[in-house]
Amino acid sequence: MIAKKHDQLPLDFGTLKAGEITSAIIAYLTRHGFKVWRQNTSGIYDPATGRWRKNPQGCNGVPDIIGFRLADGVFVGVEVKAGRDTLRDDQKQFLNELKQAGGVAFVTYDFAQFQQSFEGRGLHLQHRHD
């Protein structure tokens, strides 16, 4: 039997791609001496209303990946974008404040772009095996 076009749901390549980029960056940063994780910023699901609500303890604009370099505590934030997704004002503000405070901030649409920016800043040379 041949499947009809309407029998299949379209694949969500945008979400899958962002997730794959995020996983690759977390693995890369971990190999380069960082302690990093995926920061959940989606809010809190309220089963009574069937809706998501803002986490009252949350911080606006927090990047998708956050953490620190084990050697010296330098904070890192990576905002992962996919497709036509663009930075919101609160994300720009957080990343700018992070840079001003001496942290390392990235916005990336793919892994190769992230790696090029990371290595272009010489951050891959600062990895220490403690």
Automatic annotation (TrEMBL):
Where on the tree of life does the source sit, at the highest rank?
Answer: Bacteria
**Which cofactor(s) are needed, names only?**
Mg(2+)
All copies of domain VRR-NUC, residue ranges: 16-112
What keywords does the record list, in alphabetical order? Hydrolase, Nuclease
Q: What is this protein called?
A: Holliday junction resolvase
